[in-house]
Amino acid sequence: MSSATGGLRELHQVHLDLDACQKQLENGPRRIAAHEKKLANKQAEIDAHKADITTLQKTADGKNLQIRTNEQTVADTKAKLNQAKSNVEFDIFKGQIAKAEKANATLEDEYLELLEQVDAENTRLGELNGELKAAEASLQTTKDDFAALEPQVKTQAADLETELREAEKCIPTKMMEQYRRLVIAHGPSTLAPLDASACSECFVELSPQNIVEVRTAKIVICKSCGRILYSPDA
Ligand SMILES: [Zn+2]
Questions:
Q1: Which of 32, 66, 130, 194 has the greatest count of CB atoms below 10 A from its CB?
Q2: Predicted pLDDT of residue 1
């Protein structure tokens, strides 16, 4: 087995390792951004919830004020009963009292219902605040994890860049330009090992002559998918 073929396998491995490093470096900030978005959404949910509670509380306060106004009306009108100048006036006062008391019976039911709603919404607000704290903790953990990982992955990537330049020496100079174009097009899968007699990238069978060429260290580019082929057991 030729060292050039082994060189292609090594070159492929360096490409794969470097790609894994780059993905780690990209995934960290992406993950942090996703956690930040989740946190912002939770905060927005809490703000909307607080606004709902304020509206409910204001409505409840309005009902309470109406109740107290009606109670005052009842008290004032009751005081007037004794001073009624006629039966008609007496009946009018009685009617006003009955009307205010009836209105209050309904208002009190509505007021209690609103207070219960405020209680329930406050309970939910407590849960949401717990979820917010959990989201904050997750974000911090993600940031800390990436901050710890990033320097070592960057060092690893820099080492791999050096290894890549070394490993690329197995590409003949006359093919270098084509190789660069393939790397831009296919990234780490620019190279593909043979899978028995087929290209492992596109699964198209190679001609017997091409197989021999791959096995004897000639650089063969898959006619179907354009990958540089190498023998996996070189
Ligand atoms: Zn192929």
A1: 194
A2: 39
184 CA to centre of ligand 1 in angstroms: 17
Distance (angstroms) between ligand 1 centre and the Cα of 41 equals: 45
3-state class (DSSP) for residue 182: helix
Q: 207 alpha carbon to ligand 1 midpoint, in Å? A: 12
| 3-state DSSP assignment of residue 194 | strand
The encoded tokens of residue 17 equal 């390792």
- Residue position matching structure tokens 């060429």: 213
Q: What is the pLDDT of residues 136-172, one digit of tens each?
A: 999 999 999 999 999 999 999 999 999 999 999 999 9
Residue 204 CA to ligand 1 center (angstroms) comes to 6
Q: pLDDT tens digit string along 58-86?
A: 999 999 999 999 999 999 999 999 899 99
Q: Ligand 1: distance of its center to the CA of 225 in Å? A: 4
The Å distance, Cα 154 to ligand 1 centre, comes to 32
* CA 158 to centroid of ligand 1, rounded, Å: 30
pLDDT at position 121: 97
Distance, C-alpha 30 to centroid of its chain = 9
Integer Cα distance of 226 and 228 in angstroms: 7
Cα separation of 101 and 63, whole Å? 14
Distances (CA, A) of 170 to 4, 17, 144, 187: 6, 18, 40, 17
**Where do the CATH 1.10.287 domains begin and end in the chain?**
21-166
Q: Say which amino acid occupies 107.
A: L
